[in-house]
């Protein structure tokens, strides 16, 4: 007996299951399907991405729908167009032996009138993104006032993307008598709020532990100087010749920048972010699914709903703002029972976040060293040897062999092997022979003590100008056109502030602010001898660079030595702060 038969599924669904090659239900399917089939209940189901949640709600939904009635009976909300289409296609496969059952996908970037027409012809199940769904509701193109079932798929991702208001508005238009099934990988507060507000004593099913990562994924981190992230990424790619990966960056700019560098260095890579048109996104994803692209560099939002098999590595080029997001990232690999690796590239100041993630996912990270050049040469050499060993002989080459043998006549077998392998070996050897050791026990905080040479600046704007360390850092990065890691040790006082850049940017900083005005006021920037010790450094007391709290970290931070809360010199440290404010006032009065 097929194990799916024991769950109580109809013969038509079992026939589709058999045709699709499913043999055993996953844990979430085994737990959820019998309950949803036999009870009219609300449900919260928590399971890691890639564990078969679509079938867990899809099979019961198809079996409970009245296919002879054409009106909409079920609504499935999902975060992205890609996931919306994926769910719809899977439902069609599950219901291929059900007569007259129709599932329609509605999402942005496609004709809204065409989608409305499909619904009008009869759609018992609508699979929708929240934005397009609300748009169609506002235009009265869809009626969900009589639905029996509402499914929130990847609920945490939808809420992370800012769809809370859309979801609550949509749910408010549905009947209270419906059953709501919420499927999510993690259980942040907003998901719990939705469950409490719109669900009636839901049955909760958890596979693993809440927010826990899948056991099929191993977690590694590499400690490097923050200025060497890209070099570290490049070496990790070279050390894993068969890598098929998603590389996560925080911003669209960093995503594009990293992808362009990889392409310049000869890797098959592409960027996926919000500035791409839908057509460009579709082309990138098509190339990635067919493995024409080996490394996809993506933002978290753009990567929502990516469901591509055989991803070997997820690389966190930068850690996300929230730990739950790391769970989603790592869930892109290790799917369908296969193993995967989640890699984090961190500077010294970020290591504490690894400990926070470990507590949430209940798995340990292994610290590893970035491979050195000679290790990469060895890996590439043996990879080539194995490729040659596994290559099937194409006998179309036979007519050319006499001429080839003539060219190579006189060489021994050993000489031919050496020459053949030297082609690839020499390429990597020449690149890496003078390379430095990237593994670091320091990282970002070493910039002013043994790392990159650093310059500290004084600037005459501060808290009274409505800046805190986060907003000032963003202002400086935008004004100077520098990257996220290029402005650091930002220390905001009452009427002035300090910040650091690497010494290489010093001239650019001075030149940019030479005649610069902010809100009509001239901005003074000067190089200072202030060490910045004790001030908020790059992460600033447990907050991530974007300013969002990194859950699990400590909050708060020490103010700079010698200053009170208002930026004035305290009694123990003399009048350094007061003297700087006085000189500032004198400069202003002269102007």
From TrEMBL:
InterPro entries: DbpA/CsdA_RNA-bd_dom (IPR005580), DEAD/DEAH_box_helicase_dom (IPR011545), DEAD/DEAH_RhlB (IPR044742), DEAD_box_RNA_helicase (IPR050079), Helicase_ATP-bd (IPR014001), Helicase_C-like (IPR001650), Nucleotide-bd_a/b_plait_sf (IPR012677), P-loop_NTPase (IPR027417). One of its GO terms (molecular function) is ATP binding. Keywords: ATP-binding, Helicase, Hydrolase, Nucleotide-binding. Residues 526-591 are annotated as: Disordered. Residues 558-579 have a biased composition (Basic and acidic residues). The keyword Nucleotide-binding applies. Residues 225-378 form the Helicase C-terminal domain. A motif (Q motif) lies at residues 2-30. GO terms for cellular component: cytosol. Residues 34-205 form the Helicase ATP-binding domain. SMART domains: DEXDc, HELICc. Residues 2-30 form the DEAD-box RNA helicase Q domain. PANTHER family: ATP-DEPENDENT RNA HELICASE RHLE, ATP-DEPENDENT RNA HELICASE RHLE-RELATED. Belongs to the DEAD box helicase family. This is ATP-dependent RNA helicase DeaD. It comes from Salegentibacter flavus. The lineage of its organism: Bacteria, Pseudomonadati, Bacteroidota, Flavobacteriia, Flavobacteriales.
